[in-house]
Amino acid sequence: MSLREFHQWCVYRNEFGPLDTSSKICEYIKHLTFATVKIAGDKKLTIEDLELFIKRTKDDERPATEEEIIEMMKMLNNDIK
Q1: What is the separation of C-alpha 58 from the centre of its chain, rounded to a whole number of angstroms?
Q2: Is 59 exposed, middle or buried (0-12, 13-18, 19+ CB in 10 A)?
Q3: Is pTM beyond 0.90 here?
Q4: How far is residue 17's CA from residue 57's CA, in Å, rounded to a whole number?
Q5: What is the three-state SS of the chain?
Q6: How far is CA 81 from the centre of its chain?
Q7: What is the pLDDT of residue 73?
Q8: How many CB atoms lie within 10 A of CB 64?
Q9: What sign does the CA torsion over 21, 24, 28, 30 have?
Q10: Which residues of 2-34 are buried (b: 16+ CB within 10 A; e: fewer)?
């Protein structure tokens, strides 16, 4: 995987979450749970309270750069040796 492909994957993953179907099922369960709790009368719960993957906005903390991730992997690799 090239660095460009890695960067594209990081952007996609941060916005939409993983590709596996179990995560998509969790998303459906989250919405069903939210609707059930709201019908039961909980006024304090928000859908964000049930989020597994939070979309970033420009005001959020910046995600790690490819260089920072590669450096972290190199440090982890050195720790294993």
Answers
A1: 16
A2: exposed
A3: no
A4: 15
A5: CCHHHHHHHHHHHHHHCCCCHHHHHHHHHHHHHHHHHHHHCCCCCCHHHHCCCCCCCCCCCCCCCHHHHHHHHHHHHHHHC
A6: 30
A7: 84
A8: 13
A9: positive
A10: eeeeeeeeeeeeeeebeeeeeeeeeeeeeeeeb
